[in-house]
Design a protein that fits this description.
Layout (H helix, E strand, L loop, with lengths): L31 E5 L10 E3 L2 H8 L11 H4 L7 H10 L6 E5 L6 H6 L25 E9 L32 E10 L3 E5 L19 E2 L4 E2 L7 E6 L5 E6 L9 H4 L20 E6 L1 H7 L11 E9 L20 E7 L15 E7 L5 H5 E9 L10 E8 L9 E8 L9 H5 L3 E5 L4 E5 L9 E5 L1 H4 L9 E5 L3 E2 L12 E2 L4 E2 L3 E2 L2 E2 L2 E2 L3 E3 L6 E3 L1 E3 L4 E3 L15 E4 L43 E2 L4 E3 L3 E3 L5 E3 L15 H6 L5 E4 L31 H12 L10 E3 L6 H14 L3 E4 L24 H11 L6 E5 L2 E4 L5 E4 L1 H15 L8 H4 L13 E2 L5 H9 L3 E6 L3 E4 L15 H18 L9 H20 L3 E7 L7 H5 L3 E9 L6 E8 L2 E2 L4
Parallel strand pairs: 1-3, 1-38, 5-30, 32-37, 38-39, 39-40, 40-44
Antiparallel strand pairs: 2-3, 4-5, 4-12, 5-11, 6-7, 6-9, 8-12, 9-10, 12-24, 13-14, 13-21, 14-20, 15-16, 15-37, 16-17, 18-19, 21-34, 22-33, 23-24, 25-26, 27-28, 28-29, 31-32, 35-36, 41-42, 41-43, 44-45, 46-47, 47-48, 48-49
């Protein structure tokens, strides 16, 4: 301060304080990006977590693989999800947040058209063609339809279908236009071969000569009954070698003969023997609908005590192989949805049709794929009419619940109370839950965000009907019901022709199947016994079971009941059904029926045979009986029998104001026949571009998502387990283009996990040697200080007690984090002090290495810029190198120096933004230096650099640069590990800081 600045009036001593010892602001914590699979979570978008507990909440626990069990129903956990271990290893040190990008299957337009490995999704190798099963290679999908034993009406209470006028959902016993109905009970998938039932024909009798099957009564388009003490069906399936396999089963999930206990449920076992496992199977059981069988066939009784009959039909859902449950190819991941939620009826009760009510909003998954419809349902509760005092709008709550909870024990995952349809209110549903969603732009190769209101839900966003958004609807409207999921149109006996039952999309075939002819006779008549007597039948796809009585389940207060979608095994049961999630799978690809159109017949997709909705539920159809019991009866409002016949407020005033709806239609976009759907061997020669491999494109899209430094901060990038050379090179190139990130990559064939290929010994899983690995990497000529790699794989112990081999990048994520916690990012993440894996440096237990390296092998690796992980008898396992992949010798060929420079560049870039758009004068220069010099000084004190020099004056920012609005500074630093200078130019331009070396 100049002496001229003091005020001298009367005598005295004048003191001014000048603080040059201030501590600079703590640098912003910047962490890594990990790309990989996980059991749940938002997919294909970066999600930041601050702790491992937060990671588990968002993405689930670590997945060690080899889970076994019911793979098709419960999910594919057959291969380790290495990214989850990397996240756990890094977050154990708690030094910085971590950003995770969960992968789900994606595809390019060209890949979708090409099919095969280029397209996302899956299919069986052989599919039905031309709507028949008379081709040399049969395969595809086979449906088992069942109906009660006996004659006459097959199902006294079949599921009511929307094609039945006035029937909008399954309800009490009533008339159905096609009483001889069968319910789909299971779907079998095969790449080749065929399946059929064996046993006694319906009503007894024998087959005629031309209908004889093998040496007993058996067939695929015949009514075959159950038999034995457990009323078992007997199924014969023939594999590609014409070997017959016989299995007895029933649909009682409490029985040892339960269908899912008797058949293979792992699609991966259909791969050729030796691909992933030592054996292969001929078929897998996909969906089974035991709860529908229980409710619509035997009225809730024990399934093992009820005689039933069934028939196996080939299931195709098109006249070609382009669609169907056996062909989900060219279908990338898609989001599950719920709704549309519809309004109450404000018109005359006699003319009421639920499908004509106003669509208000629906909930759409934010990026969870099929996890959402397999784990979550939504309830609308506390529906309250407007009071006309404070607002003309009513209110309601939206509650996301665990799928398998009961109304007796509601398990809330998220809830949003006092929601309203008033777009001007702070409680507007769009504002309360959020309307923003992200979408990948294939042309610009980046995520774009759409919508108005920030997301408050971790699971869904709201899609609001335009009329609601614009405030154009009557303010009295409230959510009162919903459109059920789409469904396949039934095959009605009156609609079939030429010996083949079909509705254009859903085809039950006639013709020959291996072993002899079995067929429909005439119009949808199938062999039913009594010397080949034919009978008509209608075939239905399963539908949701709805709550009928508010008193069901033993609720002490019936007003606590949620009408609508129910998951109980039977009416009144508080035990969840086992097949609930199977009802809402996506069973057809790229042929979505579209949104329901109010007032339009749902069978509007005549060309596809898919109804836009399977039922429409509404509280307007709640009745009350003479004892005061409230129950749901479809069509009761139109019959002027419902509680709301006078006014919808009568029902709300009685506190019957809540209902539940399912999510449906989510899909992960993966090939379920692969233990690891993104396995490296699937991206080999000829399948190593985005247009030739959906797996390759999925990774590439994830990398492009994090490529822009202005969209996401990070200082590390890794994809544990990915060894494809082209993709790992892409990772390094992205890091180099950003200039602020180090890529940790894994090398191919160091260890070959079971998800890559079947090996009959552990020895064969070592696919390379240190010499070969060094030579292969050298031939790639990467030469970049923005990448690093390590050798070999290491072994860890999962919390489940399972030991597994993991890529070295997983362990290194923990080492880098723990090293930073112990010291700073510029200390070498190696050696016994900071790289001792046996001593816990990895953040997770490290027990062994796949190869114990000799001194000569370590030298070979290090000369090729591969950092060895050594195992010493007395000292344990330790990281014994810290080179980058830069071939030229400089200070930047070491990880600690590269990370130090990344740290300085990123922090200086952040600080530099404080002088952007300020006057380009000396005062601003001085301010810039006052921001930067404390950072450099502290780095020197903490041994990151031994010296530095910051130059910003007329020699750097010359008059011609000032005229171009450029301030130019130079920073020179000496890394602590070497005497070389690193000259870094920081160019401040109108678009932000530059990262030129």
């Amino acid at each position: 301060m100049s002496v001229k600045s003091f005020k001298f009036v009367s005598p005295g001593v004048f003191i001014n304080e000048i603080d040059n010892s201030f501590i600079p602001k703590t640098p912003q914590a910047i962490g890594p990006v990990v790309v990989g699979r996980s059991s749940r979570g938002l997919a294909m978008q970066p999600v930041k977590v601050e702790s491992y507990a937060e990671f588990v909440t968002a993405f689930g626990e670590t997945v060690p693989g080899a889970a076994g069990g019911d793979v098709y129903r419960d999910g594919n956990y057959q291969s380790p999800m290495y990214g989850t271990y990397a996240a756990k290893a890094f977050l154990a040190a708690n030094v910085a947040p971590l950003t995770y990008v969960r992968l789900l299957g994606q595809q390019t337009a060209a890949g979708s058209s090409a099919g095969g490995d280029a397209a996302a999704g899956w299919k069986t190798d052989a599919n039905l063609s031309n709507g028949t099963i008379d081709t040399p290679d049969y395969g595809g999908a086979y449906g088992l339809w069942v109906f009660p034993s006996g004659s006459g009406t097959d199902i006294a209470n079949p599921p009511r279908h929307v094609s039945n006028p006035g029937a909008t959902g399954p309800g009490p016993a009533g008339t159905n236009p096609n009483p001889n109905a069968a319910i789909l009970a299971a779907i079998f998938y095969m790449n080749s071969g065929s399946v059929e039932l064996s046993g006694n024909l319906r009503s007894g009798g024998t087959l005629t000569n031309d209908e004889t099957r093998f040496d007993s009564d058996s067939g695929s388009c015949m009514a075959i009954g159950t038999a034995g003490g457990n009323n078992l069906f007997k199924l014969i399936y023939t594999d590609s070698s014409a070997v017959k396999h016989t299995v007895k089963f029933n649909f009682d999930d409490d029985s040892e003969f339960f269908i899912r206990k008797r058949f293979n449920t792992n699609p991966q076992l259909l791969n050729s023997s030796g691909t992933f496992y030592g054996t292969s199977d001929a078929l897998w059981l996909g969906e089974s609908f035991e709860d529908n069988v229980r409710n619509y066939i035997v009225s809730g009784s024990s399934l093992s005590s009820q005689a039933m009959q069934g028939a196996i039909f080939g299931v195709a859902l098109s006249q070609s192989v382009s669609t169907g449950p056996q062909n989900m190819k060219s279908q990338p991941s898609r989001e599950a949805v719920a709704g549309w939620f519809i309004s109450q009826d404000l018109g005359a009760a006699a003319s009421y049709e639920p499908a004509k009510q106003k669509k208000l909003f629906r909930l759409v998954g934010r990026g969870h794929g099929e996890w959402l419809n397999k784990n979550v349902k939504v309830s609308i509760s506390n529906v309250k009419a407007p009071t006309n005092k404070a607002s003309n709008y009513g209110s309601f709550s939206v509650i996301l619940r665990s799928l398998l909870d009961s109304d007796n024990d509601v398990q809330v995952m998220e809830r949003f109370d006092l929601c309203t349809l008033d777009p001007t209110s702070p409680n507007y549903i769009g504002r309360k839950i959020g309307t923003k969603y992200t979408k990948w732009d294939a042309n610009e190769k980046r995520l774009k965000t759409y919508g108005t209101y920030n997301n408050q839900s971790n699971f869904v966003y709201v899609e609001v009907a335009e009329a609601v958004e614009e405030g154009a609807l009557d303010a009295a409207y409230l959510p009162f019901g919903y459109f059920g999921p789409p469904n396949f149109s039934p095959i009605l006996s009156a609609s079939t022709t030429n010996g083949s039952a079909q509705n254009s999309k859903f085809v039950v075939s006639s013709g020959s199947i291996p072993g002899g002819p079995h067929r429909f006779l005439g119009s949808n008549q199938f062999i039913s016994g009594t010397a080949g007597l034919s009978a008509s039948v209608s075939l239905y796809w399963p539908v949701d079971r709805l709550r009928i009585s508010a008193s069901a389940g033993g609720l002490s207060n019936p007003t606590e009941a949620y009408f609508g979608f129910q998951v109980g095994r039977t009416s009144g049961s508080t035990r969840a059904g086992t097949s609930v999630a199977d009802w809402h799978r996506l069973l057809y690809a790229n042929d979505f029926p579209g949104d329901p159109v109010a007032g339009q017949n749902p069978v509007k997709n005549v060309a596809t045979g898919v109804d836009a909705w399977s039922y429409v539920f509404s509280l307007d159809n709640i009745r009350i009986d003479g004892t005061g019991r409230y129950f749901y009866e479809s069509g009761s409002r139109a019959s002027e029998l419902s509680v709301t016949t006078g006014s919808y407020k009568d029902l709300l005033d009685a506190n019957y104001n809540q209902f539940t709806a399912p999510f449906w239609g989510g899909f992960d976009g993966f090939d379920i026949q692969k233990p690891d759907p993104l396995y490296n061997a699937g991206m080999g020669a000829g399948r190593d571009t985005e247009d030739t491999s959906y797996a390759y494109h999925t990774y590439a899209q994830a990398f492009d998502t994090v490529a822009d430094p202005e969209m996401l901060d990070m200082n590390l990038l890794t994809t544990p387990g990915l060894t494809n050379a082209s993709l790992t090179t892409k990772m390094i190139n992205i890091c180099e283009e950003r200039g602020d990130t180090l890529a940790l990559i894994d090398l191919p064939d160091v260890y070959i996990p079971s998800a890559e290929a079947y090996k009959n010994s552990q020895l064969l899983r070592i696919g390379t040697t240190p010499v070969q690995a060094a030579k292969t990497l050298s031939n790639r000529r990467i030469d970049s200080s923005y990448g690093a790699t390590f050798y070999p794989w290491v072994q860890t112990l999962d919390p489940t007690g399972r030991m597994l081999w993991i890529p070295p990048t997983v362990a290194m994520m923990g080492v880098l984090a723990s090293s930073e916690k112990k010291s700073k990012v510029w200390f070498a993440p190696a050696g016994f002090n900071r790289g001792g894996l046996t001593d816990g440096a990895a953040g997770i237990p490290i027990l062994a290495v796949t190869e114990k390296l000799t001194s000569k092998q370590r030298d070979t690796l290090y000369e090729a810029n591969i950092n060895p992980i050594a195992s010493f008898p007395s000292s344990g396992i330790v990281v014994f190198g810290q080179k980058t992949l830069q071939e030229r010798q400089s200070a930047l060929d070491r990880i600690n120096v590269r990370r130090m420079v990344i740290y300085l560049k990123k922090q200086i870039s952040i600080l530099s933004t404080q002088v952007l758009f300020e006057q380009n004068v000396q005062a601003t220069w001085n301010r810039f230096k006052s921001l930067i010099e404390p950072l450099l000084a502290n780095t020197k004190v903490d041994f990151g650099i031994t010296d530095y020099k910051l130059i910003l004056d007329e020699s750097t920012t010359t008059p011609d640069l000032i005229d171009q609005n450029i301030m130019y500074a130079k920073i020179m630093v000496k890394p602590a590990r070497a005497i070389e200078y690193i000259a870094i130019d920081f160019v401040i331009a109108s678009t932000g800081a530059s990262f030129d070396d």
